[in-house]
Design brief:
The chain is mostly helical. It has one domain. Helix content is 60%, strand content 0%. α2 packs antiparallel against α3, α2 runs parallel beside α4 and α3 packs antiparallel against α4. The radius of gyration is 21 Å and the shape is elongated. The protein starts with 17 loop residues before the first helix and ends in a 23-residue tail after the last helix. The C terminus is likely disordered.
Length: 181
Amino acid sequence: MSAGVPGGSRPSLRPTRVAVLVAVGVVAALLAWALLTVLDARSIDVLTASWLQVPPTLPIALLVVAVGLAVSGRAWRQRLAGDPRSRAVDLLSAARTAVAGKASALVGALVTGVYLGYLAYLVPDAHSELRTQRLLACAATVVAGVLVVAAGLWLERVLRLPDDREGGSAGEADQPSRRAL
């Protein structure tokens, strides 16, 4: 039994499955599209509602997050490769960074899905200038969200534990090569 861990099991961080991210994005897109369709059916003008405006800084902020994740992933890859110019590896920091990568990928999938749903709502009637502006802002947000997902997954991948099959039994459901740090 492990000390300090209820039930004696070792805590582990499983890698993010792309299928989960796709499911989150699809569900978010469907819910956003359905909400906008219902609001439109109730004669609420979704284009003039201030709470439905796409913040112009959102795609830029998502790009900054994606670049930060990518830079962090590069730095961790250098550390783990034993680059003499990089700092020593702190396992707790590595685990926290892996969790940040996983969380960023999930949030990126959610944001991408919401704005993809908004985009799907706007496409059929993209004749007005306001709709076209919103359409472009949604498209930029979707692209930036996908970059956050990709950078988060890459950061998480960089911080995976190396293959260690001799240490575990063949019947274990939790193979070390399938765990993140």
